[in-house]
Each structure stands twice: as C-alpha cells, then as structure tokens.
Specification:
The protein has helices at 3-16, 46-49, 97-109, 139-151, 164-170, 268-275, 288-294, 297-302, 304-322, 331-350, 357-368, 377-409, 414-424, 428-437, 444-465, 472-495, 523-538, 550-555; strands spanning 20-21, 59-67, 83-91, 122-127, 158-160, 178-181, 187-189, 202-212, 236-250, 253-267, 501-506, 511-516, 543-549, 569-575, 579-582, 597-606, 609-616. It is an alpha+beta fold. It folds into 3 domains: 3-282, BirA Bifunctional Protein, domain 2 (2-Layer Sandwich), CATH 3.30.930.10; 284-466; 475-616, Threonyl-trna Synthetase, Chain A, domain 2 (Threonyl-tRNA Synthetase, Chain A, domain 2, 2-Layer Sandwich). The structure holds serine.
C-alpha cells in the first residue's frame, strides 16, 4: 500500500468514525514564538486541548507536516527523518481510552478499513504511573488492549518493564504483548517527563504501539541484551502514540484539564514502512523515484549515509522553503541553511553530481503534487541553486588548495590538513572526507599534535606581545576575556539573536560561558561558531573602548544585561564592527593575539541554559 493511499485510508477511517478532516497547518507555527517549526500534529491545536471550542467540533483528524530539527544529527540511520507527516486524530473531551485504542487497533489490523498488519507483530506500551505526582498506573488501557488482542485470537498478559535499562535485563517473555514503562517512556508532553515539564504545560500518559520486524533485524549492539519493544535495537519500530491528554502541570503538581482529551499521532512514513515491510524508511515508495535519480539502488546502498542525508534534507527543505522561509543566518533560515549546505555538500562531493538537483527536487515534489499544492519546483530549485553558489565558493577555495597539494605530492599529510585549517579555515572533517575518497587516511593524532604545538607557539606570541607587565597567567586571562566577547557575538550570529549571556567565568586555562538556549548544539553549529570566532581572530581586528555616561551607553547597540546595576560611567568595549559590549576589561589590543579558538565542551546546566567551555590553542 502506497504512502499516499495510507494517508487517504487513515483520514477516511476517521471520517467514518465521525471526525472532521482539517488541513495541515503550515510547518511554520503561527502565533507561537516558542518553537521554530511545527513538530507534531497537536502543536497548532493546543488551545483546543485546553478547552477552547474547535469550530469543527470535538472530533478532528489530519495529516500534519512536521519538522524536528533535533533529529538532524540522527539522519543516516534507517528510521529517522527531520520532515515527516504525522497522521493524527483528536478528541476534545469526547471519546477517551476505549474508543481510541480499539479504533487504532482496527486501523492497524483490518484489511478493509486499515493497513492489514499481522497483530502478532504488534507490541504495546502503557504508563506505569508516578507515585511522586500521584498519577495512577494505566490499568484501564491494559484491559482495553487485552480485549483487542483477544479479538484477534491472541491471549496476552502484561509485562512490567520500568525503564529502558531495566528492560534490557528483564526482556520480553514469549506471548506478552503489553508492557508497562515509566514516565521516561510512556508520558508525553512537548517538554518531556512530568519532572521536566514547566508549569502551565499540558501532558498525559500515553500508549504506544510498536511493530516487530523480527529478531533478525536486531542491531548487533543489542545482541547481548534482552529484547523489549521500546528500545533502539532496530527490531521494533514505534508506529503510533495515543496520548491521554488530561493533565496540566501547575506549581510542581498535576491538575486535571477541563476535558479528557485524546491526542493521537502516527508517523505516516513509518506506517508505510510496516505496511510495505521495509526496515529502511528511505526505501518506502515515496523516495523510489528520487533514488533512481540519485543513480539507482546500488548507488544508494554504496553511499548510504550521504544518500539518506540528501533525501531527507532535500525533502525537508522543499517543505520549509514552500512555507516561505529563506536560507539565512538566524532562526528558521539558519536551520534551512544547514539542511541545504549538508545536502549540497553530499551531492557535490560524495556523489559528484550536483547537476541532478533539479530532477531530484521534481521527483520528490511529484509524490506530493496531489496533496500539497504549494510546492513550487521552479522557485525551490532557484533558491537551492543560489545557496549552492555561495557555499560552493567557500568550499571550493579550500578544495582547490587541497587538490594543488595533492597533485604535487600525491598525498595529503596531517601537516597539510593543519595548513588548510589554519589558513583557509577548511574544516578537518572535509579534508578527511576528501582524503578518504583518494583512498588515504590522514593521521588525526599528528594533526592534533600540530595543533598543540601551534598552541604553544601562539602562547609565546602572546607573551611577547604583552609588554605591559602582566604575568603570563594574566595574559591568558585577558585573551580569554576578548575571546568571550567574540564567542558571545558568534553565538548570536549562529543560533539567533535571542541568545543572551547568563554567566561567564574565566581562568588561565579556559573560558566558560553560560547562555540561554533550549537544546543541545549540533556539531555543525559548534564548528560554525568556532569558525566564526577564528575568522575574527585571523582578521586582526582592533579592540577599542570608550567610557560613557550610563544613559548614553544604553543608547548604543552595546550588549549588556538589562537586569544588572551599572555604575554612572561605564566602559564599552568594541571589536571592530563585530562586537560591542559593556565591560570593564581588560582586553587584548588586537584579536590576532588570541591564537585558535576551540570549543571543548557544550552542555546543559539547567532548563534552557547551556554552557560552553572553550580554549585558545
Ligand atoms: N503528540 C503526540 C506525539 O507527537 C501524539 O500525537 O507523539
């Protein structure tokens, strides 16, 4: 059954069960500044889950275009995509657990009404309760599931599995299809578990359905563990989630919402995987033509990770561009830019075939032309080609130097990689990638040791440049002060202007910078931040300061903490045009004194606050 048929069948099934079909909302949220993209079907429906009356009634359903930027790094495996369609149905205070569970089971297993899955391959999970928050174990759902299985001739009991780790030891007993898990696994809110949810957020216990692809599909890292459905073992795939949305968190306790709601979501592409018996999401029908354009199944299999990145990122970019976003350096535009640049890189440098881009775009669009009329191939191709022009220029300079070096010596050494890095900002990964294609390996340890030496030399340079009587240690602290200002601005440039400083601490060994941001940084973001700081260092920018009356200083664009108390006269430090901040210093006189900046660690220190530790080499 094709993906387009499954979408249609689901919506018709819901119509039969008295649901009104609503169109997918834009992938760009409207009136919701808290997220960049819509990542689930319920997101545009939050007011109705809180009790507002929906104009279409209490039962609605749709297929929602969704995008999860947090999954960008996951792309390359067999089941994750950044863009996906989420089939959904909702009850706003109408039916609850019984009707929801029975209906979804029917949709999954019925040949006439649904997608005809073998019920023996289905495993379901339910919430084991939370003593801390006084939320009961969901025995009601267990009984409903038992009856569903019974109606299909399967007698099943329940298996207690509390957490994933515990599950790996307990495993599943033969014949059991229903599993209890704790709130790490069987509670759904937009912000995680009952513990991590902020006050005012809604959530509830959920019941997930998993499909068993069979023992033989277990990932080898899981061979030594006992199988159970809610793992990443490769054997099981989550195909639907019914959230019983009846709670709102208020001051660290849970209150009942006005209505008992159902929020069901199931990934369309994942349902297509199981209906088409494919363990690889990129092998479902919707990508078939695009794989042909890439060169066929053998090319796909021989360049698996790159091809998956291309297919995923291109499809996501098509939908993001169609919602009016353009590539840029902030917010949504930046996410789009990252997707585009990764896919351009893999098309140009892994498949050596950037020219197939227009065909590839059109082949993907053709799968959606009857469902999403807004996809304008010509415009999308133009925007991607413009981005490619900019990006390829940057990468081509470095590549051409790489080729020169290679042609002279037929090899690229760690020393060459080091030179490419320090003079062109050419990322080591790319050098490595290009080298692998030429069938040699660069000694990473040697590269790192050159970087270390470089660090010592630049330290000496710093020492020589400071004739002000500062001790060696003090000099380093001063360098880290200036690097902190560059980092602060670079974070804003790469992650968006909403990033604000939440703390800073400097020792002679490192800088530590805390800032507001709500998720882990990706490797690419970290690299982009480092590159930006290093570019500013390399540009030898003069560092200046002026002292101004506080009122005057506040009128400038200088960054400062709005809540802090400042003296009547403040010092404003600027690094060329790039950075401008209230600060009492001291700073270096020129950024060239700093060496090479490197992020050593990036972590969360509390909700919405990240910490970077950085060093100067
Ligand atoms: N909101 C739930 C999810 O995203 C169910 O739709 O999984």
């Amino acid at each position: 059954m094709k993906t387009n048929e499954i979408r249609k069948k689901f919506l018709n099934f819901q119509i039969k069960n008295k649901h009104k079909t609503i169109p997918s909302s834009s992938i760009v949220p409207i009136n919701d500044p808290t997220t960049l993209f819509v990542g689930s079907g319920m997101q545009p429906l939050i007011p109705y889950l809180f009790g507002k009356e929906h104009p279409c009634g209490k039962r609605i359903s749709n297929s929602q275009k969704s995008f999860r930027s947090g999954d960008i790094e996951e792309i390359g495996d067999n089941r994750h995509t950044t863009f996906f369609e989420m089939l959904g149905n909702w009850s706003f205070g109408d039916y609850f657990k019984k009707e929801q569970i029975q209906n979804f089971f029917t949709f999954l297993t019925s040949k006439e009404e649904g997608i005809n899955l073998d019920p023996k391959r289905l495993y379901v999970t339910v919430f084991s309760g939370s003593e801390k928050y006084n939320i009961p174990k969901d025995s009601e759902s267990v009984d409903i599931w038992k009856n569903c299985f019974l109606s299909a001739g399967i007698i099943t009991d329940v298996q207690e599995i509390i957490s994933e780790e515990n599950g790996d030891k307990v495993g599943m007993e033969d014949g059991k299809h229903i599993f209890f898990y704790n709130s790490e696994k069987n509670w759904w809110s937009r912000c995680g578990t009952p513990e991590t949810m902020p006050s005012g957020e809604l959530g509830g216990p959920d019941s997930e359905v998993f499909y068993d692809f069979g023992k033989e599909n277990t990932d080898k890292n899981y061979y030594h563990l006992k199988p159970h459905p809610n793992t990443e073992s490769g054997r099981f795939l989550e195909i639907g989630n019914s959230v019983f949305m009846e709670y709102v968190k208020e001051n660290n306790s849970f209150k009942k919402l006005k209505n008992k709601n159902v929020d069901f979501g199931g990934g369309l592409e994942r349902l297509a995987m199981v209906a088409q018996n494919k363990t690889d999401i990129f092998l479902i029908d919707i990508f078939e033509n695009a794989i042909e354009v890439l060169g066929g199944i053998n090319i796909y299999k021989n360049n698996l990770k790159s091809c998956r990145i291309i297919l995923d990122h291109l499809r996501a970019s098509i939908f993001i561009i169609s919602s009016g976003v353009l590539p840029s350096n902030t917010d949504k535009g930046y996410i789009l830019r990252r997707l585009l640049r990764r896919l351009i890189y893999h098309l140009q440098y892994t498949l050596n075939n950037f020219s197939i881009l227009p065909k590839l775009v059109l082949s993907l669009i053709s799968e959606y032309k009857n469902t999403y009329k807004e996809l304008d191939g010509k415009n999308i191709i133009k925007i991607i080609e413009e981005e490619a022009k900019k990006f390829l220029e940057v990468i081509e300079k470095g590549t051409s130097k790489f080729e020169d070096m290679y042609n002279k010596k037929r090899v690229i050494t760690a020393k060459d990689a080091f030179e490419l890095f320090t003079t062109f900002g050419f990322p080591f990964d790319v050098t490595q990638d290009l080298s692998e294609k030429k069938k040699f390996k660069i000694d990473k340890n040697e590269f790192l040791s050159l970087m270390k030496k470089h660090k010592e030399i630049s330290k000496k340079g710093i020492t020589a440049k400071f004739k002000s009587g500062l001790s060696g240690d003090e000099r380093e602290v001063v360098c880290y002060h200036t690097a902190t200002h560059l980092l602060h601005q670079a974070l804003k440039d790469v992650l968006g202007n909403n990033v604000t400083q939440k703390g800073s601490n400097i020792t002679k060994e490192r800088l530590r910078f805390d800032f507001s941001f709500d998720r882990k940084l990706t490797n690419e973001e970290k690299m982009e931040i480092e590159d930006l700081v290093n570019k500013k260092i390399k540009n030898s920018i003069k560092v200046d300061f002026v002292s101004l009356p506080l009122d005057e200083a506040k009128k400038t664009k200088a960054l400062h903490n709005f809540d802090d108390k400042y003296p009547d006269i403040v010092t404003v430090y600027s690094i060329g045009d790039y950075s401008c901040e209230f600060c009492s210093g001291p700073h270096v006189k020129n950024t060239s004194e700093l060496g090479v900046f490197k992020i050593k660690k990036e972590e969360s220190i509390s909700a919405g606050i990240r910490r970077i530790k950085g060093i100067l080499l």
